Amino acid sequence: MNWNNYKNHVLLIVLGLITLTACGQQRKTENVFLITLDGLRWQELFSGADSSLNSDEDYVENTNELKELFWADDAEERRRKLMPFFWSKIATEGQLYGNRWNNSKVNCTNNMWFSYPGYNEILTGFSDDVRITSNDKIPNPNQTILEFVNGHEEFRGKVAAFGSWDVFPFIINEERSKVPVNAGFEKSTDNLLTEKEIFLNRLQDDVPSPWGSVRLDAFTHHYANEYLRKNNPKLLYIAYGETDDFAHDGAYDHYLKSARRTDEFIKELWQYVQSTPQYKDKTTFIITTDHGRGTEPKEAWKHHGNKIHNAGEVWIAVLGPDSSPKGENLPGQYYQNQVAKTVAWLLNLDYDVDKAGKVLETATQ
Ligand SMILES: [Zn+2]
Hints:
Elements: H1 3-25, E1 31-37, H2 42-47, H3 51-54, H4 63-70, H5 75-82, H6 84-93, E2 95-97, E3 104-107, H7 115-124, H8 145-150, E4 159-163, H9 168-171, H10 174-177, E5 181-183, H11 195-206, H12 217-231, E6 235-240, H13 242-248, H14 252-273, E7 283-288, E8 313-314, E9 316-319, E10 332-335, H15 339-346
Helix pairs in contact: 5-6, 11-12, 13-14
């Protein structure tokens, strides 16, 4: 090889390396589904039904039925019974953060440990303990990642949110952000309603919710599903709410059954995504919760808020083509405020907000 050939050779290798590096940073993700389950404890996610609550007649109507459904002596078997999609699919192909028994910790950075501050932190990437101090229906002064993404030409009209709780239009500041939010007892008001949407609108009137400000998650789920099929959003936020309300009610059986149904809802969404060309192998799910709940004393499982010890402990799950299968083997300290920048990173946008938590690095490799 003469000198010139040698130089060309080296140049080609260098160019090759640069291309490889650039390709390595190329996202496969083009769509993100952000999903939350209100106040589902990491304890149930990582070890299934709690032995002391499972058989307590104060919290469970039919303890035999509940044992049949969710009990096993082995914690790994128990959690599979509770959330089979999480423990078959996400645990083998995705990532699960927050198993404190394995030294993987996820915490809120807000010091409130209830819903609005938690959703604000997830959606904006930072806590705001000065302005977000209640669950009141106050239009969020902070811009969420949904609003940020919707502000980009290529995503305009491709961001939407569905929630069971009627405060979401305020958390997302629907009026300012122009992100469509269907939450609480809102009906679908699209121009062209599908048969299913017409039926859901009717059914929502006919099936009373046990609560005044939260609808049953089936409505949120099916409204979101119809929207997904019609409008192909690139960033879809679905906020399921039942788990928190059943817990406040002290209904441990319903709390578990709701977690199980939501696991099934998420599985359905994933199956749709993986059978649809726009989404298949190009979509990342990030699933998390707004706050934890107590463990001590026993009845603290019903509650959260900063008077409840450790209610700021949460979890995050990631499933998608840019996040290698790490299962629950993710030791370290992570924060709720890292979700927003991770969503932006996955969509190849720079969410340049200094006070926002950094990208969840382990989810990008
Ligand atoms: Zn609550």
